Amino acid sequence: MAQVTRRSLLLAGAGGLALIALGGEATAQATDRALATTASRAMSTAGTTLERAATPAGLSGYRRLTGGPGFPLQVRADLAQSDSRRDTTRVPLASVVQVTDLHIMDAQSPMRFEYLIDIDPVAFRPHEALGTQAAAQLVKRINQLGSGPFSGRPFDCVVSTGDNTDNGETLELDWFLTVMNGGTITANSGDASTWEGVQTSGKASFYNPELAVRDRYKRAGFPDIERYFEQATRPHTSAGLRTPWYSVFGNHDDSINGILPANYRALEELYTGGTKFIGFDSDRANLELTSAFLGTRPVSLDWNAKPNQRWQVTADERRAPFTPGEFMKAHLDADATGPGPVGHGFSEGSVDTGVAYYSFEIAPGVTGISLDSTNRGGFVRGSIGTKQLRWLDETLRAGSSTYFDAAGDAVKHVVNDSYFVLFSHHTTNTMDNTEPDPEDPTEVRHLGAEIVELVQRYPNVLAWVNGHTHSNAITARVGPTPLRSFWEINTASHIEFPQQARILDICDNRDGTLSIFTTLIESAAPYQASYSDQSQAALGSLYREFSFNDLHYLARHDGTPLDRNTELLLPNPLA
Length: 575
Hints:
Layout (H helix, E strand, L loop, with lengths): L5 H8 L4 H5 L1 H18 L10 E5 L8 E5 L4 E3 L14 E9 L31 H15 L11 E4 L9 H12 L1 E3 L30 H4 L8 H5 L3 E3 L6 E3 L7 E2 L3 E2 L3 H4 L14 H12 L29 H9 L15 H6 L4 E6 L2 E5 L13 E2 H13 L3 E3 L5 E3 L6 E5 L21 E2 L1 H8 L5 E6 L6 E5 L8 E5 L10 E8 L4 E9 L14 H14 L16 E6 L4
Parallel strand pairs: 3-23, 4-5, 5-8, 12-16, 16-18, 18-20
Antiparallel strand pairs: 1-2, 4-21, 6-7, 9-10, 11-12, 13-17, 14-15, 19-20, 21-22, 22-23
Helix pairs in contact: 1-3, 4-5, 4-14
């Protein structure tokens, strides 16, 4: 049997227990060789998961994290083959950073649903009080890197693909914009001197870091931490991105808790009031709400239900829910410009019309398309309306000298060709929400499969980049021909482990193919910090550690090696 080393134990702790029995040292050596090959192909691997990645120390129970082996580059030739000498001929076209599902959260808000934790595991997370500190550390990492590891090109832009806020609160939006643009954040609401969220309730369902109560998290090994909420609510600063950035709508940015329609009046006043929501006084309303969280059937919401008033907290007007128009308008504020562009994709026209989709130049010859896949009718999953579908068709046609009609026949016309990269919150598989838009109830909603079919008529589309599932997943969306195919790139969230963002380096190999290099990155927070350390970096570290040890952690969010650091080959439609 191969000798069991510290490295093989680390690999086993990451989900490879079988490696010890099947030759862990040999596997570790193979990983080292693959990482060396990866490094030889990159401009730099420093600061990315090509170099190292968060790995649990130990094999079971509550585990602290350490820096383990990185993820080697995986070449995916599902759509094309390329010359083995392409590293010597490739030319960078664009370099983009995707962040997604930051879920900047007012964890003390009375308009939350933690009491449903046994129904909806993400109703409460043990690390949620530290979200702004962790997000600021992610911004720090992006600034430190500055350029793509395979293109060497300075980042052209950062795109945040939705669920920027957790519960659609004005206060959360203010914190999000400050994280992205720079400034000081005090992640506190209600009573400035007392934490009023569930984590000081003494209830065993929740992690109570400051209390002696042996809650379910403490029994699993979570630590007692003195003055935890004093640390969490201390003012701290985000440097702000140095790269222009764009914003995309997610369902948590336009629905109550990302599920209920924003105009559900029975709950609307709770945002700014003094009653903590722990259910209704109506059994029927509670059943309807539970069914909405379970997603088992459409619900007919009881507009007359009254919230149970047993739990009182300090009211705070800053928690007022924002409308989609107010979300866009906040991005246009002069104080929110940061590195630009003004509005971060939105315009005064967007606010006036309520149109939250747009196109933008990523780099010369590379166009980004931001879709609004959220449904104003509520519920978690997405779709788009007819007007947006027509706009998408027209936008793609305006940048494609060759496209295919519905019959599959090629159509040529004279335009300036562009490569296209689509961005949305929802994945194509989670766009199946047929709820009518309350602002235009007669407009037809179009689902993922239909949109994919439309997109595959345009060979210039290289990739569709999204979030929502909190998982790393990369899928070849195979069309009638390789030229009419594209890559769907889904990236894990920054609220649940593995808490990663992704760099996309788009390169022309000059052999009739393109490469999209996808490189995962983690925040700049250390893998492990003292529980008494009050720095932003240490709190960002705890955010990551607690997310890994969350009782509801799902290993599937990590994805497979083919979903992490990859080179995605595809035919060059403009060659």
